[in-house]
Structure formats: C-alpha cells, structure tokens
Task: inverse folding
C-alpha cells in the first residue's frame, strides 16, 4: 500500500468533511477515494470517519491521527524536495578525490572555483587519493567524482576533457649548470625518483617505457611522493625526479637557491601527466559538473595544463614495453 497517497486522501476528507469535495480536490473519482479510506482503516485497525448520508465526521482515533498524518506528509514533501536538490546538485554531500601530486595553489584554486559555482548548499568531502585508490572507491560506490591519471581502467566511468601537464626533471643545481632544458639521455647513470607504482601502475610503467625509448634507463628507481622527501633524495643520492613545473615550486633557478635543487624542462617534452575528471556513468549531475569545471580551470590557471589530443588511446595496454 502507498501509505503517503492514502494519508493524502485521509487528510483531504478530514479537511473537507465531504467525500465529493475531497475527491475533486485530489483530482480523482469518489468511489476510489472511498476505497482508499477503507483500505487505510483496515491497515491501521481503526475507524477514521463516521459516515452518514449527510456528513462525514472524524472519529476520536481519526482526530488523534490527523496531526500525525499531516506531519508525515510534510516530512515526505521535504524529503522529496531535498532529493530534487541533491539531484540538481544544490545540496547534499559530494565525495570527491584529488591525486597527491597537485600543488597547494591548484587545490586552493579548485576549492575557490567550486565554492563560487553556486554550490553553497553542498557539502564537499575531499580526499587525497591515488588513481588506484580512486578506482577502488568508484567500484565500491564510495566516491562520486575524482581527478585521475591516464592511462587507467575507466570501465563504468564517464570522463571530462583530458588535460596534459608536461613533466620536467628535478636535479641538483650543479648538474643543471648552463642547461635551459635537459635531454632524457643525459640523465643516464642517475637513479630515478618516482611515486610508488601501486598508486597508478599503468602511468608508472608508461613513464619508464618513454624514458627507455628516449635513451634513459635508470640504474634504480626510488619511491617518494612528499616534496621535501623528494628534494632530500635528489640532494643526498644524486638521483633525479620527474615532476610537473608547478608541484615543487622550483620552476625558476632562483626560486629557492638554498635548497640546491632546480627544475628543468625536458628536451622535446616527451613526458607528461594526463588528467581528467571521472565519475560513475549516469552520475553526472550539476555538482559533478561544477567540480569538473573547477578542476579544469584550476589545472589550467595554476599548473599550466593544456587540452591533450593524444596520438594513441589512453586505455590500458596489456603490459608496458619497459617490463618485457
């Protein structure tokens, strides 16, 4: 039984004290209205109305239940209104995720853009998660939207435009002396610092494959993510790290002379991180759209990201050539 609809009939008859007027108010015929009242009475086990040929009056149980019925209807309407606002992205909870390699400026710009997009009634639950962790949460229905790295398995997801952030190299200041850009092959003999492979296995393998194709096969790969830890490894081990221009705040040679680490672009820009906002298929509501637009604008304005038109698909390959 549709309890809400039956309660609507009960309240209408109680307020009109007449089945005919209540039926007209509800836009239905009188016999079905009478049948609904009878079914409701049987369901509740109480008689709601005293019926005579001239009038309809509430019984004592009916009078006691009328206020409760009105409250249930009010709560039902409030519930449906909230659901509509959530559907339209006006209120509710949006569970979102960003990868660890974004700069603080990019995160701040994204949050400012999202807040300014008319989402004041929406609670944003933001997490720092690798691509692999995001994919796990998407599969478990624990994430609504996220910024992922390509390539990865995007089955069951919808994607926003792909943006490219070119990767350069962090290296000791003395090793970069006189160099405006660095050929990958010139890094031969130096260990490479990368994020842990588990965070984005296909991206990790793809980077190593591209390095090998361009003449650089590192003797060893060290794993690190935090900016300070990465700089420490570069300084103490004479290793190098791949990094976007914005992440470590070292785009200019004089940005932090006391650190002894500088960033240089790679000759020919062979390496890049590719991002897009992703969300479960069919979940692309106004809140997701606002997050996607804020993320794209933040990446373009603070991280120098540009639209990417890849020469090959971004889907997963069976294995990286580097490991064959």
Result:
């Amino acid at each position: 039984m549709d309890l809400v609809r039956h309660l609507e009939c009960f309240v209408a008859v109680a307020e009109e004290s007449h089945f005919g007027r209540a039926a007209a108010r509800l836009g239905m015929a009188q016999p079905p209205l009478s049948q609904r009242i009878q079914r409701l009475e049987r369901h509740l086990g109480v008689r709601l109305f005293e019926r005579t040929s001239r009038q309809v009056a509430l019984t004592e149980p009916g009078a006691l239940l009328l206020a409760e019925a009105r409250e249930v209807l009010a709560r039902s309407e409030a519930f449906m209104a909230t659901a509509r606002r959530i559907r339209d992205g006006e209120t509710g909870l949006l569970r979102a995720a960003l990868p660890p390699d974004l700069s603080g400026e990019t995160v701040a710009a994204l949050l400012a853009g999202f807040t300014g997009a008319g989402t004041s009634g929406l609670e944003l639950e933001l997490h720092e998660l690798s691509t692999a962790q995001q994919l796990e949460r998407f599969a478990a229905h624990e994430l609504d939207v996220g910024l992922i790295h390509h390539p990865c398995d995007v089955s069951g997801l919808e994607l926003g435009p792909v943006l490219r952030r070119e990767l350069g190299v962090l290296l000791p200041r003395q090793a970069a002396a006189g160099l405006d850009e660095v050929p990958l092959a010139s890094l031969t003999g130096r260990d490479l610092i990368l994020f842990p492979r588990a965070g984005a296995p296909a991206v990790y393998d793809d980077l190593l494959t591209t390095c090998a194709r361009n003449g650089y096969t590192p003797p060893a790969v060290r794993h690190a993510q935090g900016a300070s830890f990465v700089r420490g490894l570069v300084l103490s081990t004479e290793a190098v790290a791949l990094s976007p221009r914005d992440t470590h705040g070292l785009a200019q040679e004089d940005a932090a002379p006391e650190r002894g680490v500088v960033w240089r672009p790679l000759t020919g820009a062979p390496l890049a991180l590719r991002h897009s906002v992703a969300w479960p298929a069919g979940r692309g509501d106004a809140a997701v759209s606002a997050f996607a637009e804020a993320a794209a604008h933040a990446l373009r304005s603070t991280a120098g990201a540009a639209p990417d038109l890849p020469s090959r698909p971004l889907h997963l390959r069976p294995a990286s050539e580097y490991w064959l």
Observations:
- The two ends are 63 Å apart (CA to CA).
